[in-house]
Amino acid sequence: MAQVPTLISHAFGVGTGLGQFGEAGHGTFVTALLSLVQLLPLFFLLAAALALFAPLARCHFVERRYGLLSPDHPLMAAPAAGAPRAPGEVPEPHFHDQMAAFLHEHAPGTQLRLSTQAGFSARVYPGGWRVTRVGVFASLVHLWESDVEAARAVLLHELGHLRHGEQHVAGLGSPFTALVRVWPYVLGGLVVVPVTLLFVTGNATAPLTLAEVVLVLFSVPKVLLLVVAALWSAELGADRHAARAAGADTLVRALRRLEEGDRGGPARLYHPPVGVRIWFASRAETGGAQLLLTLLWPFALLTQLLLTVLGAVPAYVLLGASRDRAIREVLALAHDTLTADPAWWATLAVVLVWPLATGVRSSAGARPAVSGSSRVYATAVLFPAVVLLVGLLPLVSRPTGNVFAEGHDGHATASTGVPGGGGAGGTPTACPSVSAPPAPTRPSGLPSFARGGPTASGDAAPHQSDGPRTFRTLRVTSVEALSGSTAQAQDVGDRLRGARWTLHGDGSLSADVTDVPVLRGSGVDGTTRWFTGQRTQHTDVGTTTTWTEARLVVGTDQSPRLDLIRAATLAMRAVVDCREFTSTSSTAQRFSLTLSGQ
Hints:
By secondary structure, this protein is an alpha+beta fold. It has 15 helices and twelve strands. The strands form two sheets. Strands 4, 5, 6, 7, 8, 9, 10, 11 and 12 form a nine-stranded antiparallel sheet that branches. Strands 1-3-2 form a three-stranded mixed sheet, with helices on both faces. A hairpin with a 5-residue loop joins strand 2 (122-126) and strand 3 (132-136). The radius of gyration is 34 Å and the shape is elongated. The chain starts with a helix and ends with a strand.
């Protein structure tokens, strides 16, 4: 919840700046979608937290969605008795009576629900605050009829989730599993498609947006990685409980029988691959399996850091940094992150207090949730401890100077600082303040209109006798992109069509379009007038300055002609996690307009 306002503010600030620079607004559109992609996992996590407080609503949704019914429902009633049995023969209970009795034996109070749908075997879900239900599907019913011991192992796996209290977080209707299931489609719809359209249109903001795309593509899997690691830990822990209770061979046989129904693509990442589960079930009490279960979470944190490095390097390069400098800068940031990320400290703290927690459980009469050898526990302690030690040692220092090359339009400059981090002299670096960047300077190398004739003056004399004169754009005769894309120049030219121009008595020229600032007269030579103008606009994260030079020719025997040279520079500055990022991009165009006098 704390991250949502920051991301929304960042999206609006960056989107506004890109919109002013990108003219057509494509940058704003794509940035909004990328921000939505970053916000969506947070909303799923928030929904998962809120679902803990609404177990009855989740229960109703799950049972309606998957057609789960009580065993005494008319559609699930046992068939009528067949041929008469011998005197004294006890009829065999129906399969759902056997399942209900098995659940009650191992977890009293657990309720059974049945569904005729395929695709699952069995899933656990909350039936209320203190009630848990196990949903059984068609594939497990078929397995029960052919191999009842294997089917019981599957039910023991679900009771393993119940034993750890995971039915409130995972299982049917969990927003965590929904996040993993829908994410491939979200990436395709909200990232790949709009970014592809951005490049097809040739929008000038594409290089800046591409850097943001790279960061999003690598940051979102980081969120999924931790969720997947947590869900895999839950599944392997439940497999370990089932292997203890039913035997490893029985559980492996059940996994092989149900492999075809439970196998899926990326949308099914919330379950480990069947091959991994079979390997783990057959070795559940060995040191290797215990290490896998214990180190899965810290390995996920380490992989998350690796994804940060892999995403930041190309983003730096896209913004103008050299490859060597980008690698050195990112490694320094990753080194600082080891101690700045509270997840590593929390992991070490949980592992250290784990013996106390399991001792309390044992004194209450229950077996520890996870038990292992002393060597496995020592490895679980050493892994995060060594990672934090690497972060505390001065092994990597941030390079001095600007990250990006200076003096090149379209390249970015950035400086970074981390609270408590070491600077060149080992002193802490203060967190940069949040403020808009200063107004950019005029791009170099812009062409200028030649001024000729001995009567040309440096200042345009007022023409009060003439009074204001108005013109309207009759047609745009030529459009030339001096820098930036041709599509962007065409967008500006389209907005100049039909524009209304006013030549004031004080010698200034104004237009009713926002692309052109008020132009002050800078010279007159007969029927030719020269103008210059400049306008600066500020947002929370960006400053845009537009320069315009114009030449107006008003003759008696021809239509008035207006020539324009327009340049715009966007300077952006953002402070994220006490790291300052600035970028500067410029575009320029030349236009020739034919006017009609009014």
